[in-house]
Design goal:
Blueprint (H helix, E strand, L loop, with lengths): L6 E10 L3 H17 L5 E5 L13 E2 L2 H6 L12 E2 L2 E7 L4 E4 L11 E2 L2 H14 L3 E4 L3 E6 L5 E6 L2 E3 L5 E6 L2 E10 L6 H9 L11 E10 L9 E7 L8 E7 L4 E9 L9 H8 L3 H7 L3 E11 L10 E2 L2 E3 L15 H19 L7 H6 L2 H8 L3 H4 L3 H15 L39 H6 L13 E3 L4 H10 L3 H4 L5 E5 L6 E5 L9 H5 L5 E3 L14
Parallel strand pairs: 1-2, 1-13, 2-8, 5-15, 13-20
Antiparallel strand pairs: 3-7, 4-7, 5-6, 9-10, 10-13, 11-12, 14-17, 14-18, 15-16, 16-17, 19-20, 21-24, 22-23
Helix pairs in contact: 1-3, 1-7
The structure holds flavin-adenine dinucleotide and iron/sulfur cluster.
Flavin-adenine dinucleotide (FAD) binds next to α1, β2, β3, α4 and β14.
């Protein structure tokens, strides 16, 4: 649509994404403005129907960044209600569980078991009290540039464009949000971040980013199976030793247990289904007992970054910066990225506040290199890549790296892009998954139902195939359409054309839970995930 039709709003800073990184940045900016007695217009836009609707995490939360940002969070009622009290680290075989010593990074004393979605809702309230304008239900669909190529803000997507690309009676043009600085806090594999990385060559000096998919359920369990504060992690079964993956099981308040399975997207077998592996995991005798007699409340999935320090791209570009998981600050051995996401947002806020005051040399990456985030990620940088030696090799290397070298190895292990790792279907063993029992294990469609996912049906597809012919020509023929298995929402289906019997890829885009796995794992990078109309997608209550 023509720019002239769009309404325009001007701010000092626009933040894209109301996750922990974006909200921490907005709060910090307003705190700095208040401390210096200056006015600063800060706006946050969020594609979920409300703040928290698209947030999915574990989550065991390390409060270090929150302590720095809002030291009196307890008095202000932050939803950190369940201190972590016990850590268990288990190695599973098909029928047995062996308790291993908990690695030091996974000690959670001082941390809290939370819903990250609820923490974001609370952070949004704190931000609004400081004068931040937050607009949920608005997806940033386009980066705006000035004539010199500097980022000058974003535009939200038009609403009411039909499937045929033409305006419907619901049509409302997008809004241009013009800013002196724009922070991209879109989380893992942000759709606009992707375009910025390409345009400004932000990845030229770093390793490729690598990822995992996390599939999660929230349960209400029998009181006798509930131990608030208990944190359980497992490795081993049902993964084979070449595939990186493991589970988490966190006991929150109100008889709730968050359970999930995380699988590295460098997995090789195209027949692997992360969703079904997760379902199978719950049938293990050491795990099943927690859920017997319980009720599943919610379901969802989300990708997370695993590249660590060596995959952090350049963060600054003219007119803005990347923060949080949009850049990739997850500490993989800790399985935590919320505290580093928040801290990166805070440091970016301090840096661009200085830039706005005239310090042109202030850089977010340089400032982060001086913060505890860099030190923390530097120490663990070799642990995730060491798992290419297999589970046992990775555990042995990690123990050596942690206890003997103490993260100070004079080498850095590197990464390969995940999408290049699949083997062809004719060289891979098929995997037969058991049928769901409807009590402990479920199918995908009934799962998506409880993610409350909803998209306006009459809109252009937000999952675009760069070359539609590759769906069958490459993906089906060579890899047996792995997207039909790795998508945790059953969006992709191979169907037969009536009459001709020819295969065709059907995309049920309305089921998409915005995990971004297809954008990452497609072997030819042929799937381009772009934002649908704002407000569409999952409506997670407290994931
Ligand atoms: C299964 C799983 C388990 C995890 N467990 C833990 C844990 O136990 N502890 C921990 O600390 N960390 C954990 N993490 C990691 C943690 O969740 C992330 O590091 C953290 O959420 C990153 O914060 P963020 O603000 O950068 O991004 P996100 O939390 O992803 O937030 C980004 C926000 O931006 C919005 N957005 C994206 N694009 C647009 C757009 N174009 N326009 C408007 N809005 C947009 C999204 O809807 C979202 O609300 C886990 C992650 C997963 C997936
Ligand atoms: S379509 Fe892609 S982004 Fe959406 S749920 Fe499936 S894999 Fe995730």
């Amino acid at each position: 649509m023509a720019d002239a039709e769009r309404e325009r709003m001007e701010y000092d800073v626009v933040v894209v994404g109301a996750g922990p990184a974006g909200l921490a940045a907005a709060i910090r900016l307003k705190q700095l403005a208040a401390a210096s007695g200056s006015e600063l217009g800060v706006c946050v836009i969020e594609k979920g129907s409300e703040v928290g609707a698209h947030i999915l995490s574990g989550a065991v939360f390390e409060p270090r960044a929150l302590n720095e940002l809002i030291p009196d969070w307890r008095e202000r009622g932050a939803p950190l209600n369940t201190p972590a009290t016990e850590d268990r680290f288990l190695y599973l075989t098909k029928n047995h569980a062996l308790r291993l010593p908990t690695p030091p990074q996974m000690h959670n004393h001082g941390n809290y078991i939370i819903s990250l979605g609820n923490l974001c809702r609370w952070l949004a309230g704190q931000a609004e009290e400081l004068g931040v304008e937050i607009y949920p239900g608005f997806a940033a669909a386009e980066v705006l540039y000035d004539e010199g190529g500097r980022v000058r803000g974003v535009a939200t997507g038009d609403m009411g464009i039909g499937r045929d690309g033409k305006p419907t009676e619901r049509y409302t043009p997008g809004v241009e949000l013009i800013a002196r600085e724009t922070l991209f806090a879109e989380g893992c594999r942000g759709s606009l971040t992707k375009t910025l990385v390409a345009r400004f060559h932000l990845r030229d000096g770093s390793d490729p980013q690598t990822y995992a998919i996390g599939v999660k359920e929230l349960w209400e369990v029998e009181p006798s199976h509930h131990q608030p504060g208990l944190v359980v992690h497992t490795v081993g079964w049902p993964m084979d030793s070449a595939t990186y993956g493991g589970s988490f099981l966190y006991h929150l308040e109100d008889r709730q247990v968050a359970v999930g399975f995380v699988i590295g997207l460098d997995y090789q077998n195209p027949f692997l289904s992360p969703f079904e592996e997760f379902q199978r995991f719950k049938t293990h005798p050491a795990i099943r007992r927690f859920f017997e007699g319980g009720r599943r409340i919610s379901y969802g999935a989300r990708a997370l970054n695993e590249g660590g320090l060596q995959s952090i791209p350049e963060l600054d570009f003219p007119g803005g910066a990347l923060v949080g998981c949009a850049a990739g600050f997850v500490n993989v051995p800790k399985i935590k990225g919320s505290h580093t996401a928040m801290k990166s947002g805070m440091v970016a806020a301090e840096t661009i506040f200085a830039r706005l005051a005239g310090d042109d040399r202030a850089g977010v990456r340089a400032a982060l290199q001086r913060s505890w985030v860099w030190d923390e990620l530097h120490r663990v940088r070799n642990i995730r890549p060491s798992f290419r030696l297999g589970l046992l090799g990775g555990l042995v290397y990690s123990a050596l790296d942690t206890y003997v070298l103490r993260g100070r190895a004079p080498w850095t292990l590197h990464h390969h892009p995940d999408h290049t790792q699949l083997t062809r279907a004719d060289a891979a063993p098929r995997i037969e998954y058991p049928r769901p029992d409807g009590k402990i294990t479920f199918d995908r469609l009934s799962s998506v139902f409880i993610s409350n996912t909803n998209h306006e049906e009459d809109q252009p597809a937000h999952l675009k195939l760069r070359d539609p012919a590759k769906a069958v020509g490459v993906n089906y023929r060579l890899y047996d359409s792995p997207e039909t298995r790795y998508c945790p929402a059953g969006v992709y289906e191979i169907v037969e054309e009536a009459g001709t019997g020819e295969k065709r890829l059907q995309i049920n885009a309305q089921n998409c839970v915005h995990c971004k796995t297809c954008d990452i794992k497609d072997p030819e990078q042929n799937i381009d995930w772009v934002v649908p109309e704002g407000g569409g997608g999952p409506n997670y209550p407290n994931m």
